[in-house]
Each structure stands twice: as structure tokens, then as C-alpha cells.
Write a structure and sequence with these properties.
133 residues, mainly alpha, elongated
Length: 133
């Protein structure tokens, strides 16, 4: 089976999720030190600093919609609804929205972050809408 553009977008989002795991973990390690990272992490953990906190929240935000996105892309493929403008534009809008969201959130840019998040959500809605047309 060939990889469809929608599955390629989904694969890219999965790579982004892995990048977010490592970027957030690296920021926490930079703040707390290698000894903390290698330790059992028992006891109270101090709150994260600005960057680590932003990266943690951006990662959590991605994980809120990623299962929905993955399910919608897979369902569209199984139902034979992929390959149309809704799924093609929707998957790429979601992907590029999430790619832009991460650095915008990390840099703490207000309003733009929310607009980019809305754009990615519109992409998700487009893929879901394709299931019904």
C-alpha cells in the first residue's frame, strides 16, 4: 500500500510529537540538572521554568487533539474518503498549524498562538467533515 498524502501528514505529526517529548525533556533537564534527570525523581518536584513549562503545555495541547486527528485520518482512508480537498487541505492545515504552534508557544507569543491553534483545529474539523460528505 502506498502512503497517501494524508498518511504522510499524520506520520509528520507523529514525528513532531516525538520532537516535543525530547524538547520538553531537554528543557526540564537544563533547568533541574543531569542528576535530577538520572535520579528516581522521588519527592517534591519544583515547578518548571518558563520555557520548560511552555514546552510541557504545548506537548499536552498536541496530545489533546492528536488521537482525534489520527482516528479521523485513518477513518477517512478506510471509508475511501481521503484524497479529496477536505482531507488533503485539512491534514496539511493541522500539520503546519501544529508545526508553527510549537515555536510560537515556546517564544510566548500571545494571540498568534491562539490563531495558529484555531487553524490547526479547522484542519482537524475538515478531515472529520470529509467523513460525512
Amino acid at each position: 500500500m502506498d502512503m497517501t498524502p494524508e498518511f504522510i501528514a499524520l506520520a509528520c505529526v507523529l514525528v513532531l510529537a516525538i520532537v516535543q517529548i525530547f524538547w520538553a525533556a531537554s528543557a526540564r533537564t537544563a533547568e533541574r540538572g543531569l542528576k535530577w534527570n538520572a535520579g528516581a525523581r522521588d519527592g517534591d518536584v519544583p515547578p518548571p521554568g518558563k520555557l520548560a513549562g511552555r514546552l510541557d503545555r504545548a506537548q499536552a495541547n498536541l496530545y489533546e487533539t492528536l488521537p482525534l486527528f489520527a482516528a479521523a485520518v485513518i477513518m477517512a482512508h478506510v471509508a475511501g474518503k481521503d484524497g479529496g480537498p477536505l482531507t488533503l487541505w485539512g491534514t496539511h492545515l493541522y500539520l503546519f498549524g501544529r508545526l508553527i504552534y510549537l515555536p510560537v508557544y515556546a517564544l510566548g507569543i500571545p494571540y498568534v498562538r491562539s490563531l495558529v491553534w484555531v487553524a490547526s483545529l479547522v484542519g482537524l474539523f475538515m478531515v472529520i467533515a470529509a467523513l460525512f460528505v
